[in-house]
Amino acid sequence: MASKAAARATGARFLELFRAAGAVEIAPDILQPAEALLDLYGEDIRARAYVTADPLRGELMLRPDFTVPVVQEHMANGAEPARYCYLGEVFRKQEHRGAARVAEYQQVGFEVFDRADPEAADAEVFARIAEALAALNLVATIGDIGILRAAVAGLDTIAERKAALSRHIWRPQRFHKLMARYAGLVPAPEARGAVLAGAREGAPWIGLRSPQEMEARIARLARDAAAAPIAAEDVARLDALFALRCAAGEAPARLRALGLPAIEGAVARLERRLEALAARGVDLGALGFEASHGRTTMEYYDGFVFTLSAADPALPPVASGGRYDALTRVLGGGREIPAVGGVIRPGLVADLEGQA
Q: Where in the numbering of this chain does the Aminoacyl-transfer RNA synthetases class-II family profile domain appear (predicted)?
């Protein structure tokens, strides 16, 4: 495993490349306020964050990534367009200890805030990182959470079901269990049927929710029970979408062949992104596309996602990133700006370079 000094020296090399591309270096605090941030990360990161308490500042967390604090800083003080870079430690609890799964490691990253041409910004972030790592012959894979969200939004079902499925896109097992229930392939829980049949009448209210909140919840369950099942054809199309893997250049045609009109806008954005990647010299034939790529990473990604990985599947991605437009809206109090970024693990790069 690379020493901290070697990881930082490798990271400094990439940091200089990002500075040369016009990025301003930013250094968010290692201790971040926990209450606001934990809700912005996915379940995986929330479960792995190091959280502590300060008598004056309240609940705090050791920085699990840079993107959220960088967005906070930009939305509070930044002009646009803007490019940022950073280098420093992040902290995440790990189930598997060892060289590939350390709890404290370096990240070096590059973020672009620019509303002029989002697809060109996607291509810039990916291409700069891929070019910096070209000597390692990594496997590059891209996806697009926006395509999945558009497919869910286009389902012929009630709004509550679409909202629940959209929330669980990042939890594949939960998502597909919900789809099976909404399609009538598995029954609803027995307890839910009893509640809707009136078994609650005369029973005391127990718990922290008010009677009004519980009645509203029961009303939503009743609407769900009364809704028609999602058509088997729609379930099959979504299953085919989530399973799609191909060369990136083939992706638009393969996606359109699925017969999902709701994703057309997202597919058109993918086409523009691929054109921008090709213009930057990226070989689309060697670039993989997976429709489900990114489903188990940060929940704030809402569009383009990517990873560059070594041949050893036991290693974490050497680099990863994506688009997070909605995060800027959440942290900007209603203001927003299209934003995309990516990070490299310089310690892992140092290890791989040492093996070459």
A: 16-346
